[in-house]
Amino acid sequence: MSDSNDTYFIPEPSRWPIVGTIALFVAFIGGGMVLNGYINNGQYVLGIGVAAIIYLFYGWFKDVIDESIAGKYNEQVDISFRWGMAWFIFSEVMFFAAFFGALFYTRVLSIPWLGLEENVSNQFLWPDFQAVWPLLTTPDMTIAGVESKYMAIKEVIPAWGLPAWNTAILLASGATVTFAHWALKKGNRAALCWWLAATVLLGFIFVYLQATEYGHAYHELDLTMKSGVYGSTFFMLTGFHGFHVTMGATMLAVILIRSMKGHFSDHNHFAFEAVAWYWHFVDVVWLGLFVFVYWI
Amino acid sequence: MSEAVLHDDHHDHKPTGIGRWLFSTNHKDIGTMYLVFALIMFFVGGAMSMVIRAELFQPGLQYVDPQFYNSMVTVHALVMIFGALMPAGVGLANWMIPIMIGAPDMALPRMNNMSFWILPFAFTLLLSTFFMQGGAPAGGWTMYPPLVLQLGDGFPYLVFAVHFLGISSIMGAINIIATVFNMRAPGMTFMRLPLFVWTWIITAFLLIAAMPVLAGGVTMLLTDKYFGTAFFDAAGGGDPVMFQHIFWFFGHPEVYILVLPSFGVISQIIPTFSRKPLFGYTSMVYATASIAFLSFFVWAHHMFTVGMPLAGELFFMYATMSIAVPTGVKIFNWMATMWRGSMTFETPMLFAIGVLFMFSIGGFSGLMMGITPVDFQYHDTYFIVAHFHYVIVPGIIFGIIGGIYFWLPKWTGNMYDEKLGKLHFWLSTISVNVLFFPMHFIGLAGMPRRIPDYSVQFADWNNIISIGGFAFGLSQLLLVWVVIKCVRGGEKATDQVWEGAHGLEWTLSSPPPFHSFTTPPKVTDATAHS
Question: Do A72 and B5 touch (CB under 8 A)?
């Protein structure tokens, strides 16, 4: 790593951006075909697109890792990467903010409005609607009953069962990734790998437990995406979070493999830190979920 | 794959062939692609508005059926906002920010390339919906449910196009922030940054905060249509109005995402041709930041008539009014910059002054609509169409065109044809007012927007508006001709180009070397913006 600011690093022309664009394009076309009901052909197009996206990540990051190992990056490049990752995470925060906003809006404003006696929707459409949270019975169900396009929820998932365990698991994984970081800074390679392995394991346990919970919700509680706005917000928030945990755990696994190969030094390991930031971000989002989706 | 670590030597080797553009990591090439793409989309969106104006030339249904008319209105907006205005702003940023702050390139050049190349693919997705069952989106660019959910096979592609464009914008914004925060030359402190750079950092923050919210909103539309969720369905406990809140939480900052780069451009142009430093530089920076900050608290002024609690209506009314204060500061500073300046009126200056006058018209009509009780009359009439077109066309597009004339000699090394440039300005200015000013009258008289037919008492003004529209559209062909002519040759431009020009971009040769600054220039007060 060079400390000199008198030279700049500019990458040579790269084919990865256009590959990535085409990969996303193909995936979007396939996704649209599947949604429009052309499932037979669409799934292949989608599959090719997703495979191309995975190939893109592999190839692009391989270039970056090779350049980094070759010592081509100076401190300025490192700082650019830091700004980039930090603001990428902020954009993810705003993405979740849209869904949290939807949750707060329905809970605080629109459902109480639907229950107001002087409200026309209450007078003419759904006089029997009760504005409560969790909303087990949607307005439509008060008229259509079992014919309703929405499914009545039997009960919701209590906070102090599996979700509390999941909270503990994610918080523990936040600690283990920090221990791994300390080990890396001290140059203790074995401890780094073990703590990282523990973090990856905790991450995938979390995903596994979420999947179990989804199965329980779908098969026993009738809590589905089609259960009205409770199910909508529940699955949108936990679903996107679960997807992010899966991504984060996969990224951690890559960092683990790189650590086992001897990558990173005690002062030069931005990839590790970027993934750790990301991991803390999904951790914090989960705390929001635990409090606002499950608990209160 | 190898890379170039640049030292003092000026090796100006350019990649050749199509690969130069497809695989580019050069901010100037990418900036050029952005600008050319924006120009193409300007004419694509413009062609759609010509269809609209042809249909509205007389009352009754003439040329297109109402569904197609609605598609024209919807896609015209999407193409102009996401395909023309935003890429043009990013194109200027790509070209100018590195050379204004003394950097060799953008901080993350590969990502820069991807954020450009997404655009043509995203618009392929969007425009392909015209050929699908159910046609192109026709429920308005705001995509309000439940209407938008009635779209046919095109619906997922509308949503994915928005996602795709959002990815592009966020990557572009991250790049600009990393570049400005990390690549400034020694001595280029924040308060020495050219104002164009300042407006772009603030725009980039707006993009990062607003685009993901839109992505979330359209994702909920997608699951409502295909996965049975009930976010925007009252029967399931949701609320269609909630989409409007989410959309405009993105949508209002989006307005400033579009306009701030234009403000930045004219903040460069006006001091240059007034031969005076920008008046009130510091207050300009703070005013821009204030506008951006406030833009997150005014979104519901787009939906005063939707049925909100009185407290909400009042809050959003006062918050909206408060944006007039920093905007007024900016207008005042631009005028004070010209005050007793040694002014000349080359084409960029004409366009900048045009922005000042005509953006103010749009700003004032915006204030009128910010007043909740009177907005009940204006809402969804041609008055609002007049308002935002005054903001967007002479406020933003004129700023971008002014920037193109301002920097074209720097980019190409040749002076453009001043006579043709002035002709372009005057034709555009006259026709744009013929086009949009009468919309105020018919709007106040009650003509609704987004309807292909109208009552006969609006016929005369619509006739005149359409003539203004065709004239404005044809005038823009002149811009293409001026640019092509300038690229092909002309009087050689000096490095400084304009007598009153200050700043790092004017210290480089015209055109600048392929890698702008290979060693960081030292910036002092004397070489900074003023």
Answer: yes
